[in-house]
Fold:
Amino acid sequence: MTSKQVETETPEKPAPSVGEQLKSARLAQGRELRVVANTLHLDLATILAIEADDQHNLPATIFVQGYIQNYAHLLDIPAKPLLALYKQHAPTEPELDLRGPKNKGKLVRPDKVMRFTRRRSPLLPFVIFLGLILAGITWWLWPQSFSPQPVASGVEEHVMLIPEDGGISTIKTTVTTTNETAKSPEVAVAEDKPEPIAEPEIPAVVETPEPLPQAVEVALDRVVLDKLVIGSEKDSWIEIFDADNKRVMYRLLRGGQSREIEGVAPFSVLLGYAHDVELSINGEAFDVSPFIVKDSARFRVERP
Amino acid sequence: MFGSLRGMFSNDLSIDLGTANTLIYVKGQGIILNEPSVVAIRQDRGAGGPKSIEAVGLEAKQMLGRTPANIVAIRPLKDGVIADFTVTEKMLQHFIHKVHEEKFKFLRPSPRVLICVPCGSTQVERRAIKESAMGAGAREVYLIEEPMAAAIGAGMPVNEARGCMVVDIGGGTTEVAVISLSGIVYSSSIRVGGDRFDDAIINYVRRNYGTLIGEATAERIKHEIGSGFPGEEVREIEVRGRNLAEGIPRCFTLNSNEILEALQEPLFAIVGGVKAALEQTPPELGSDVAERGMVLTGGGALLRDISRLLSEETGLPVIVADDPLTCVARGGGKALEMIDERGWNVFSYE
Structure:
């Protein structure tokens, strides 16, 4: 067996550590340990610890890296490979905790960072924004629920209807308030007397509605209107609300007069002087006497 | 309200708003922007005409000293603090947008921002920096003192009950601080930095060669042959400048020893600041510093052999941090991460 073969069979030596490399370079240049320590402004013990790779007696990694770099420059050997090797074997640094040893978890240290705005919950604006979007979608998909309902009342109004051909047309409908007294002979006598107060009255209008388009007729058929007729022998204050809580009558009814109201039952009725009031709904008489309390009465009139 | 919403789509940033360079560290991504703090402003139609931003950062720096009459390239920060509020705001706005432009194009970013300020800055100067960042679109602004950020970024064990000395040599200021138990025990700010090195080189060349050179040339000389301590090797550089007597450009050669001579004044101002800090440091902490040494950070630490100068002058070990230019921004980034991990009360000022 030749000496060459012996060399190849011997196991490979591990690469020399940082400390070993620095020590061998120092010894090769014949520099004394004390001289190196003085030149680098380090303790002799620190230089010994670096050469012995004794991590326990060395300060934090940042300092040791600097020492190795300075030492390598002094010995005029490349520092980068040594630093790379050191980083491979460097001990892991404990996590930096700025709260200090005595105050973990509760330290308030005013001298490091200043904060200028209040911290807000990041979820709150997101939730508000989402709510607004949902509200918008709801409003967009069900616009009917927010639009005003059609109201039958004793006044002239315009109704928008969409005919079958797709065009929009406006028609005038009139809900009539008939003055029955004109037809009654008894009331005709009463009308001969001069009236002390000229009360503004809705003129008795009986208009023959124009022939409506077919679509309008279909739409009107769906809304069933109830007819309420109210008359009184003596003056009485009348206030009537329909099913949609729309006030359909609000006036003083003179003795001997009667009014006809069309709307959707049930009606809420308030009579100021209820003793001589006669009421009928859809032709059927309605007795108000059970509701009279101290001359006035408040009651609901349902569809018969 | 919408600021917070936009904040969900923004990255938290740590900004080292320096006189020479602005660095931005993004949580989880590292340093993603390192550009000169220079803004080029165009003003058409005379002195009263409308102003607009022509270029920001590297592009603007290339214009320094080379602009026509209607464009002016300026550094909005001077000596570490804001000299031109509006331009600083525009510059920050540009950088914040640049950081976010890859990710969230459709939303105006509204990040949480931590900005490093010189420890010698006044309340007014700090408020100006904060207002500027808010104006640039930041949702929340935190300020941290530069030496603390630099020490954290360099990896110093600032939480230990031992003195750590950090010297951050920036473009406009040099910050010296002694830190122990996560607090600054002593700090001072010297208004000497990389810019003063450039000025010193310009003055030296004018005085000794009768030639005028620009800021960019002076910076190139500093980077290539500048040194803080006489070395064995003498390096040379060819420079072109305008000869003051003849009025025409001339070429001449400078060597590293000449630049060392030129830099003596600002270098010894820094040495004086460090010595003053050591004088003011309590003896126990001074002993710790003497045992372990001081750490240099900032762009000025890259000047050749400046660590050796400080070591020889103070008799202490001096260590240059890994990647010293980015230490402050990285330290700020770590502080931001700590805020998230451990809650605000770790840092609360209120």
